[in-house]
Amino acid sequence: MNIKLTLPVIFVFVQMLTICSFGQQQSSISKATIIKGADSLKVSLHLSDEQTQKFREINSAFVDSLTVINQSSESILIKGEKRKGLFKSREEALKKLLTLEQYQQYRAIIDAKRRENENKAKELRKTN
User: Fold this and answer.
1) What is the rounded CA–CA span in Å between residue 28 and residue 19?
2) DSSP code of 46?
3) Percentages helix, strand, coil for the chain, rounded to the nearest 5?
4) Using CA atoms, how far apart are residues 11 and 77, in angstroms rounded to an integer?
5) Cα separations (Å) of 24 from 20, 68, 115, 127?
6) pLDDT at residue 12 is higher than 50
7) Hey, how many other C-beta atoms are within 10 angstroms of the C-beta on 33?
8) Would you give the DSSP letter of residue 26?
9) I want to staple 42 with a disulfide (CB 3.0 to 4.6 A). Which of 1, 2, 32, 47 is the partner?
10) How far is CA 56 from CA 31, 71, 74, 115, 123, in A?
């Protein structure tokens, strides 16, 4: 499967993950966005209906928990540690859900999009 062809298909989902990875507020991420992202990945990763539903549940719970962390009055350090644990638990859940091949494809897609976003941010900083 060509990763370049799958990137546009899952743009919304990857954007959600990118936002989450930088620890920003999650109030703008709706359940519809999570469903759309899972449906996009269903196609690109060839997920079963059961995997797609579980994927939605994992990411919905992740976003809900991340929102609570981000909105808490705890210190940045404590929030960071909680986020780190949350990301780790989500990755473990995804590893259990997906086959090895699906997980590797998922990571390749996410990592490629993250690098793309980092490069765009570097370019923006250079122009400003």
Assistant:
1) 10
2) T
3) 85, 0, 15
4) 30
5) 6, 12, 18, 23
6) no
7) 17
8) -
9) 47
10) 9, 22, 28, 24, 33
